[in-house]
Amino acid sequence: MTDRTFGGRLAAEFAAGRHLCVGIDPHAPLLADWGLADDAAGAERMGRVVVEAAAGLAACVKPQIAFFERFGSAGFAALERVLSDARAANLLVIADVKRGDIGTSFAAYGDAWLTPGSPLESDAMTVSAYQGFGTLTGALRHVREHGKGVFVLAATSNPEAREVQMAQRMDGKTVAAAMVDDAAAWNRAEAPREAVGSVGVVLGATLDLADFGIDTGAKPDGPALPVLAPGFGHQGGRVEEARTLFGGIGHALLANESRSILAGGSAGITERIRERGAAIADALDDRRA
Ligand SMILES: O=C(O)c1cc(=O)[nH]c(=O)n1[C@@H]1O[C@H](COP(=O)(O)O)[C@@H](O)[C@H]1O
Ranges for the Orotidine 5'-phosphate decarboxylase domain (predicted)? Predict the structure, then answer.
């Protein structure tokens, strides 16, 4: 295990009992709730307050880029300042960008979000491999060379996902299970001695993963597979059920909550993060990687 890899840094968070990922999703109604304008300055203020509150309590933050992107260049400038605060606070950042494209174009997305020193530098990004796992090569270079991470969409929390993600790939696996297997295989091949891999998957906390052909019975061979699990809180998933939901695949689980933590204004946000962090840590008590 090394803190020069994303997986190593995740392992350190888990060892400290931190499994919570706090979403930074400046929805218009939430900004109103916080007494903030629905503009780039409002989104920046929310982001920076969340970063300050999450430092030391959560494993990571996950800015949802769409809520910044809607303000154009001002939104990206705001996001850069949020990311810079998070780096200064030593908080892991997963950029929720869900990028995917043909390999050459996708590589530019990887460069934007994962190059050390880039204005948008993050520790990990969410990616879509529905154009083929091989298109991810450009981002995987940053995983290998710069200790970055990626989370590949596998079984997402939204109900519309089933028709695509339950479909069969040419090898007979469901698309969702194929993403899980390809991510785990990359970690086994590239970092066999790491306790936790640097390539993870997104699995919704609102799902029965067996429906998607995903085996939750046993821990996959090799490094533990990082699982970013949105869908807790507002979408109905309960952290108290995390072990039942993820079983053997949940050895390196990051539970994301956004609206359930952000709702209610800025007052009390530290307490809400502390409480949600304790709830997920309790639920996974014997699961520390
Ligand atoms: O990749 C994601 O983060 C993601 C995948 C998924 O399957 N479901 C999902 O809700 N998300 C994101 O996770 C966050 C969930 O927000 P809340 O429902 O407010 O907790 C949003 O930013 C979503 O875009």
Answer: 19-273
Please confirm, yes or no, whether 98 is among the known catalytic residues. Answer: yes
Instruction: Give the position, in ligand 1's atom list, of the atom nearest the Cα of 262.
Output: 19
Which has the closest alpha carbon to 11: 277, 201, 226? Answer: 226
The pair phi, psi for residue 99, each rounded to 5°, is -85, 150
Domain extent for 188? 6-22+94-282
Instruction: Give the pair of three-digit tokens for residue 34.
Output: 């916080």
- Across 171-251, the runs of DSSP E, i.e. the strands, are 199-203, 226-229
Tell me, yes or no, whether 35 lies in a domain. Answer: no
In a domain? residue 244: yes
Q: Average pLDDT of the chain?
A: 96
- Is pLDDT above 70 for 289? no
End-to-end CA distance of the chain: 11
pLDDT in tens, 96-143: 999 999 999 999 999 999 999 999 999 999 999 999 999 999 999 999
Is 81's pLDDT higher than 80?
A: yes
Which structure tokens are listed for 205? 């906390």
Q: How confident is the model over 213-236, as a mean pLDDT?
A: 94
- Asked whether residue 212 is assigned to any structural domain, the reply reads yes
ipTM: 0.98
